[in-house]
């Protein structure tokens, strides 16, 4: 019984995710703005919570230490189309 409930919830979540993905494909700028707003809300909530803030500071310090040792580890990830001469939006 519990397994069936779990599967139903999983399916519902999957369908919601796919609906959201389709919605974002139609209007990517709105989705991007919503994501940014969500990130800022999470950051503000974390700033208000001392435990979360301490954890974030610890992460930031560890990242800076890692970057100081190996600067290449802190470069932004390379996009798969970099160096190919084409971009994902390039006309075919």
UniProtKB/TrEMBL annotation:
Q: Where is this region: Disordered?
A: 1-38, 59-92
**Biased segments, Basic and acidic residues type:** 1-24
What is the protein's name according to its record?
A: Uncharacterized protein
Q: Which organism is it from?
A: Solimonas fluminis
């Amino acid at each position: 019984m519990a397994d069936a409930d779990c599967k139903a919830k999983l399916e519902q979540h999957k369908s919601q995710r796919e609906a959201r993905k389709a919605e974002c494909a139609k209007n990517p700028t709105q989705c991007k703005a919503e994501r940014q707003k969500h990130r800022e809300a999470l950051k503000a909530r974390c700033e208000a919570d001392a435990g979360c803030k301490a954890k974030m500071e610890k992460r930031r310090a560890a990242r800076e230490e890692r970057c100081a040792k190996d600067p290449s580890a802190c470069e932004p990830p390379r996009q798969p189309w970099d160096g190919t001469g084409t971009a994902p939006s390039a006309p075919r």
